[in-house]
Amino acid sequence: MNLWEPALPAIGPNEHHKDPAMLKALLALLLLLPLAAQAGDADFFIAAKPNEQASLLQAWAAQPDPARLALLSAMQQGRLGADDTRKLRLNNRLRGLLDNALASHQLLSDDATLRLAAARQLQKSAQPAQVAFLDRRFAGEPDAAVHAALGLALANLQLADSNPAVRLAAVRLLGETGDPMARTRLETLLDPAVETDAGVRTAAETSLAQVKRKLLIGELLGQAFSGLSLGSILLLAALGLAITFGLLGVINMAHGEMLMLGAYTTYVVQVLVQRYAPGALEFYPLLALPAAFAVSAGVGMLLERTVIRHLYGRPLETLLATWGISLILIQAIRLIFGAQNVEVANPGWLSGGLQVLPNLVLPYSRIVIIGFALCVVLLTWLLLNRTRLGLNVRAVTQNRNMAACCGVPTGRVDMLAFGLGSGIAGLGGVALSQIGNVGPDLGQSYIIDSFLVVVLGGVGQLAGSLWAAFGLGIANKLLEPQIGAVLGKILILALIILFIQKRPQGLFALKGRVID
Amino acid sequence: MNQPLLVTAAQKAGPRLSLAIGAIVLLLLIALPLLSLLPAGHSLQVSAYTLTLVGKILCYAIVALALDLVWGYAGLLSLGHGLFFALGGYAMGMYLMREAAGDSLPAFMTFLSWSELPWYWAGTQHFAWALCLVVLAPGLLALVFGYFAFRSRIKGVYFSIMTQALTFAGMLLFFRNETGFGGNNGFTNFRSILGFEITSQGTRAVLFLLTVALLLASLLIGWRLARSKFGRVLTALRDAENRLMFCGYDPRGFKLFVWVLSAVLCGLAGALYVPQVGIINPSEMSPTNSIEAAVWVALGGRGTLIGPLLGAGLVNGMKSWFTVAFPEFWLFFLGALFILVTLYLPKGVVGLLKKRGEQ
Amino acid sequence: MKRRSLIKAFTLSASIAAMGLSWSIQAAETIKVGILHSLSGTMAISETSLKDMALMTIEQINAKGGVNGKMLEAVVVDPASNWPLFAEKSRQLLTQDKVAVVFGCWTSVSRKSVLPVFEELNGLLFYPVQYEGEEMSPNVFYTGAAPNQQAIPAVEYLMSEEGGAAKRYFLLGTDYVYPRTTNKILRAFLHSKGVADKDIEEVYTPFGHSDYQTIVANIKKFSAGGKTAVISTVNGDSNVPFYKELANQGLKATDVPVVAFSVGEEELRGIDAKPLVGHLAAWNYFESVENPVNTQFVSDWKAYAKAKNLPGADKAVTNDPMEATYVGIHMWAQAVEKAKSTDVDKVREALAGQSFKAPSGFTLTMDKTNHHLHKPVMIGEIQDDGQFNVVWETESPVRAQPWSPFIPGNDKRPDYAVKGN
What we know:
The complex is a heterotrimer. Chain A is an all-alpha fold.
């Protein structure tokens, strides 16, 4: 038992019966008959063994044939042709080679945007065998953007060229990109054993410095963006609490469950849309927004009427009751939807990201959430400061008795305000469902952060919550790369504790002379 | 109105009766471990399961009592008492791990290929030093935290949230393997304590009796405090801190004393809890556990001495029962119980009893 | 009146506590079987389906006449993801309910918490989840994978040309013992294969971490240095945000494949699998495995989920720990038949060498000495329907090495179960 047993069989059980001579002959035959490519290629590919399939794809990539384009596009979709029902089994290696081969073929297309995308793909994946073909396309490329992109793809390969002048030109060209791969490629050239020409080595050094600078810019922007994004998520999670806890003074431990209800409403809306209006599936998150607001606000108002109403003026006891509510809501959801997470898919317009720099992609979902968070803050602010309801809410929270004397229906206002806070939490739930998991425990993971944001910002201060959320988000993301996620989080908590020592009422304290 | 309810209840029911009931409960608690020593199969034998269960609940009752001292009397709701409890538990756990490992390193360290103990483990093989740690670790942390918090006059919800952040940070710290406390798994698989086998009935009975003794001592301290001038100042502090200050008192010292005392009591309870349940790990520090402790106090009756004990017993007893009887629905019962108690029994179970007594 | 209510109050807590112990109703001629899985709290997400699987298996065994002519009676308790409660509940199952065997636990810490109880009372626990090894108790049978039955073959696959011939490895995990140990073993293994330390990056996140922006950016940066694979031991709940971030930042499986050890069919139910196509998982069983035993197993489970109206029954899936639970219960039943008794010592003896034709398509054998199953290893690629396409598997079941040879000092460990390890 003290030995590593060599009982495992060698990896790649399919490699047993390969016959290189046979394969070569077949390949040659195939390449000689480009006209018969379309139908024959598909049959030939599916019959081949994985290793032969890989060689085939490599051969196709080096010598593209327009007739094969349809086949390769279909293969990327996991099929062999538009009306071919045979299932294609690919693994990652083949998928990578396929992407490369397809890009090679797409260079032959008349569509410049397609050619540009193909050239970008080839920058990542082109193989030495493709140099001759790329050279030809590069020479004949009419579109300037595609020409430049192809130049880079070619430069990557030319680093290994035998002619120092070609290498030098390639190195200089690579210095102008901000491609993370270029950095590694240039770094290898600094070694005299790899690069014999001193001139090329010096040029590589200069180019490397350029690339590094560009990469650094991308990294810093990326950090700033992720800080903003985390901040916007904290803000959405905390905003509802800023009303129920900040304004009404209810220590609302069930706040997290309002987020969860919002997220589950999103799920239900998604399922319903899928079933009854599949055409509108792309826009289900937009439909989910009012629904989530309504559900969470409804549940919130119900709770306010039945439970919380009796507890005003006893803030610490609301903690107990809302804790009970939270247990009940979690278990109810668990019984209805199951303990497992449910699937909330990102619609097309929220998937993927915006490629800003070669090493900086901003996911659409996160961009949308930042904008959404700011919109919600703005609307809440308008509601509280520019409407009758907002006026009443502020009056009741500042002096309940006085407001009642002036004819403000305090009971109704309490209910509406609690509903508003819960409804906003529901909206937050919709946003959270797009980036994280939707399960019964969703709320529990946000409740502590939410309270910290509200307290740090100053209870009762909407602007405070805004600053606190973004401050925490950015601080967290600045610390994480330096000391890791775990220590970063601990340090943030310690900093919050210290900060509150300094400013016990939070960032934005209510100014007043009231004393008990 | 805000007088300790024990006192009021005692006045109503007559001191003799309360004493008699107290004595009966005490006798029962002392009899329990003795009965567990009877041979297996005897009709009066108390099983190890019952003993550890009641022992665990008693430890929780001490935590509830300690929390009540700061919340019920001084008006400081701590949502971080689980941290002090766990620190005491970890200090005891360190000793138990060293005892189990003998001369070699504790198992989880050999596992991380550490060749020597970190400095803070020094001396933990001695029971006396471990006991000091049980008191010092939570005590010092509470002292430092309390000193700064009370100096800045942090109170109310701010104080609660800060203590919650503190225990959350503690949990994350202890989760890390590099911290040197066994990471997520914490400490388990204890063998012996002071040379006595930890699973033997005798050891269990002694640990149980020690828990009862600690509970009694805490009650006594609480009672003396509540009746003394110190207790009155605390109550005044809770109800009107500013007026108290205008009367010439400096509230900081009072708060700090009761806060540190409460933390130390929690640490001691943790130290007794660990050998009885056989595991200590960071989940004891999770904010939920500390909130639960607050729930025990509120349920039993805040600002009384018996209330927290009743609350801890009720909630945990029900939890143990419900999780077997209604595994899928017990959270509904528990949740509903919390809501109903807050709505209809604002003074907790003790308040109900008192009301009944008045009728 | 006064008197009575006060007496009530004082005895209330004691009597409530006592209720817990009188809650066993002795029914004649059944064998009690304990099921110890969290039905609430953070682990409910994973463990609930194991409880249901255990109940289904017991129902099936009963339908065929039970074991030794006696029906099995399941005792389900909820340890509520609370580790000390696990110990308390197992003591209760063993001493109050007097169950013959317990099927349960998911996390290592819960197993560590109950282990002393099982050793003290000489109980029998079947543990169905892959774990870090470094343990071998005579009172536990491990039906999940040890590291050499999951992690090492997966890395070998990534190194092969077929798997993309990765040169650099990004080890990402949640900060607890299973990922730490697995990564430690993997690092030693990678060293033995000539991978230098600069080509290995190890990163941990806290429990419940949900913001993977920085980490995915780091993976991207790391992967610029050569063909990279990510080995993920990220804990169940954090996987959704991780995979969503991967997809949104445009990191595809063809560029940087992620092989996960805790992501199965059940976890994929909560994710839109389309952007994940091509990422890998290593297990000992996949629902998509094609053989008659598995077809029966899957359809039985779907029918059961529908009949019992389990939440999400229309999308019910099976996964590796569920299969391990199923195999465990059957093996125990076979051993009881062989031993003609439920006595723990006799059953333990009968279990050694016991074999069972499992849904994985292999006949699994319980090792004669080390209490672990011999299991086949499979690597699956995620498909767009949330199922796995098996791209590689061992030819025969692999023997477990709970004491990994890649951890120093383990060569002195005995290859049989000893108490108190």
